Every structure is written in C-alpha cells, then in structure tokens.
Amino acid sequence: MYQDAQGVLTMVEPTVDGEVVSSFADTILERLSCFVEEGVVHGLQREMLEGISLTQLPLAQRQADAPERFRPAIVTGGSLIWRITYHGRRFDET
C-alpha cells in the first residue's frame, strides 16, 4: 500500500501479526533453518550405535572457516550429550 503525503508517495509495508513482512520473513527463515538442522541431527542421533551420541560445541570453540556445531561423543565420556529442545535463538547463535 502507498500513502500520499503532500504529493510524496511512501510505501506502507504489510504486516503479519503486527510485524512488518520483511522482519517476519527473516524470523521465519531463522526458525526454519534451526528446525531443519536440529531435526536432521536428532534423526541421525537416534540412529547412532549404542554408547555413541552427539555433543554441541560452544560458539566460542567453533572455527569461522568451518563452523561445526556437533561432534560425536561417547555417552559415558564426560561430554554433555545434546538433546533437542525448543529455543528462540537465531541460527548463527545456536
């Protein structure tokens, strides 16, 4: 939609649930990216051999040129085993 203010047209961006579409699309893309990654990893984790699972590397330990998020871990080896949980963080913050 456009608004005319003294001969100057300005665009009024549509909204979804009170949020402008450009912001809403960014939020949905971030959530979808997390959902896909975590869904795939959860499925792989369920198929791993008994005694082997996955751990999540903290952001500070990931390399910028290869931002690996998950690594195999021995269940009784002392690593914190990753479990799928809900969160509202952006994809690059997980």
Summarize the structure.
The protein has 94 residues and is of the alpha+beta class. The protein is built from one helix and six strands, in the order ββββαββ. It has one domain (2-93).
Topology overview:
Elements: E1 2-5, E2 8-11, E3 15-16, E4 19-20, H1 21-46, E5 52-56, E6 70-74
Antiparallel strand pairs: 1-2, 3-4, 5-6
Give a description of the structure.
The protein is an alpha+beta fold. 28% of the residues lie in helices and 23% in strands. The protein contains one helix and six strands, in the order ββββαββ. The protein has one helix at residues 21-46, and strands spanning 2-5, 8-11, 15-16, 19-20, 52-56, 70-74. Strands 1-2 form a two-stranded antiparallel sheet. Strands 3-4 form a two-stranded antiparallel sheet. The chain has a two-stranded antiparallel ribbon with strand order 5-6. A hairpin with a 2-residue loop joins β3 (15-16) and β4.
Number of structural units classed as domains: 1
Structural class by sheet pairing and helices: alpha+beta
Strand order of the largest sheet: 1-2
The unreliable regions are none
Work out the radius of gyration: 21 Å
Give the overall shape. Answer: elongated
How many individual helices? Answer: 1
User: How far do the termini sit from each other?
Assistant: 36 Å
Instruction: Please summarize the sheet with the most strands.
Output: 2 strands, antiparallel
Name the helicity range: 25-40%
| Average residue-wise pLDDT | 92
Number of strands: 6
What proportion of the residues form beta strands (DSSP E)? 15-25%
Order of helices and strands: EEEEHEE
**Assembly level:** single chain
